[in-house]
Amino acid sequence: MTTSILATVDPARSRVEARTGEGHGVVMDADPPEGDGSAARPKEALLSALAGCTSMDVASILRKKRQSATDYRVAVRGVSAEEHPRVFTAITVEHRVEGEVDAEALRRSIELSSTRYCPINAMVSASATVEHWYRLNDPDLTGEAVLVAVTGPGGSRVL
């Protein structure tokens, strides 16, 4: 399978408009003063891709398990190295799910996404440690999140 992107660059502003082979657009911008902050920075787009990839897996697996999520959000936070190229060294992914969802079904869905199905997670795990957490029916984020798996250069660990 081949994936292709064609990116058009505005060299005066460091703004990039990318188009997928199917014509879908992705816009990115550099940090000021190089860019004007009007779009996501490339590293933000990468974290967004991770959120999208893993959440699509988890939602699909939950549906197959006949779990009824009424709200589902994914928060992703990346910590970068101080020196160039300032790659992510640690990433935290937190799945926030509400509804009639069994905790074990959610845990297993996140485990499968993080260790088997999500190619974005596999790629970033080659150089960064990625922790996968969840909160179930905790709309105020007052309870403790549950750690499911840690992936990274040293392999995967499921808890």
Give a verbal description of the structure.
With 159 residues, this protein is α+β, with helices and mostly antiparallel strands. It folds into two domains: 1-39, no CATH class; 42-158, K homology (KH) domain (GMP Synthetase, Chain A, domain 3, 2-Layer Sandwich). Helices cover 28% and strands 39% of the residues. The chain is built from three helices and eight strands. Strands 4-5-6-7-8 form a five-stranded mixed β-sheet, with helices on one face. Strand 1 and strand 2 form a beta hairpin. Helix 1 (42-64) crosses helix 2 (103-117). The longest helix has 23 residues, at 42-64. It starts with a strand and ends with a strand.
**What is the mean pLDDT?**
96
Query: Which CATH class of the largest domain?
Result: Alpha Beta
Order of helices and strands: EEEHEEHHEEE
Helix fraction bin: 25-40%
* Sheet with the most strands, sense and barrel status: 5 strands, mixed
N-to-C span: 33 Å
Number of alpha- plus pi-helical segments: 3
Strand order, biggest sheet? Answer: 4-5-6-7-8
Shape descriptor: globular
Radius of gyration of CA atoms, rounded to a whole number: 17 Å
The CATH topology name of the largest domain reads: GMP Synthetase, Chain A, domain 3
- The CATH architecture category of the largest domain equals 2-Layer Sandwich
CATH-defined superfamily of the largest domain: K homology (KH) domain
Number of domains: 2
Structural class: alpha+beta
